[in-house]
Amino acid sequence: MRIVYVCIWLMAIGAGCQAGEKNDGALYQTTTGETMGTYYRITFQATESASPGQRDIDSLFDQINLAVSTYVPESVVSRFNHAALGISVADIDDVYIIDVFFDNVSISFDLFRRTDGFFDPTVMPLVNFWGFGYEPRTVRSPEERQAIDSIMTWVGLTKVEWISSEPQRLQKSLPQVELDFSASAKGYAIDEVGQFLEDSYGIEHYLIDVGGEAKAKGINADGEVWRIGIEDPDALDIGQAYSFILSLDNKSVATSGNYRNYYQSDGNTISHTMNPKTGYFERNDLLSTSIVADSCAIADGFATACMAMGFADALKMITLEPALEALFIYIDEGGSIQHFITPGLRPYVTTRKR
């Protein structure tokens, strides 16, 4: 899922750092690049002190990937996945990487509890089986029930034990248990970059976007709160990239959808959203979910969980989370595409007329 910038510079995404317009003497800069298999784009108001360059940002992303990326063989999560029993902090040299890994462990346990297990990072074997993980894709069929049942014996965060006493360690009950933080890691990285901009450079106005997940603080170059366009699946067919404009005031937003990342197999549409309860890819009435929260990692994880649940159950869950707001795009019983915006978010969303 991608987001579209509104009222900021519309530039092609590429590597580098560029200066933007001035607002009352304030210079805004944009740094772009690639990380986590996607793009990043960071726009911020430069301060009197030195501003972060692309090398600084890339270095931070690289460190985070060394903790949580399953596509980095030497990462902590990869080492955990291929270990027989688990991993200990004694096996890791870098203190920051240790902190990042266990931050993501903590976030995962929190999300697992709050989503009734619909957010579950132990879906890694399922993600690989269905062709969306770090292993080469093999086209699968829903008829492979025996293989799916076997894999499901390795799925469930209850099979992972986090021991916080020194030396801190993460253990698993079966060697085949593997973790996949991808449903919250981009959001976590965005939170870390935001903290880095604030703590290291005193930057108070910024918009960070990594692959469609975003965090905004302060105002843009026009002196307004940041505004972001969110795709509407129903609008893509008529050449309109987005139908909702979200004003993001010191918040984060993460959007998850099922209409882009999929493939066809024997007449079945295999999507990337995994249902940890069934072992199957999930295709339900939800087309996309956008979650607004203080933490982008939390928004990211809840958006994924909602997609696995379907509209009715997702809405019930979000109503029990007063710190979260949501924009759902779903298919009603008559086959028409509809949208629902939670009451607290409605004042910040503009619906474009088609």
Structural account:
With 354 residues, this protein is of the alpha+beta class. It has two domains: 170 residues, T-fold; 113 residues, Orthogonal Bundle (T-fold). The chain is built from nine helices and 18 strands. The strands form four sheets. The protein has a nine-stranded antiparallel beta sheet with strand order 2-3-4-8-9-12-15-16-17. A four-stranded antiparallel beta sheet has the order 1-10-11-18, with no helix packed on it. Strand 3 and strand 4 form a beta hairpin. Helix 1 runs antiparallel to helix 6.
According to DSSP, the number of beta strands is 18
Shape field: globular
CATH topology of the largest domain: T-fold
- Which CATH class of the largest domain is shown? Alpha Beta
What is the structure about, briefly put?
The chain has 354 residues and is an alpha+beta fold. 29% of the residues lie in helices and 28% in strands.
Characteristics:
354 residues; alpha+beta; T-fold; 9-stranded antiparallel β-sheet; 4-stranded antiparallel β-sheet; 18 strands; globular; disordered N terminus
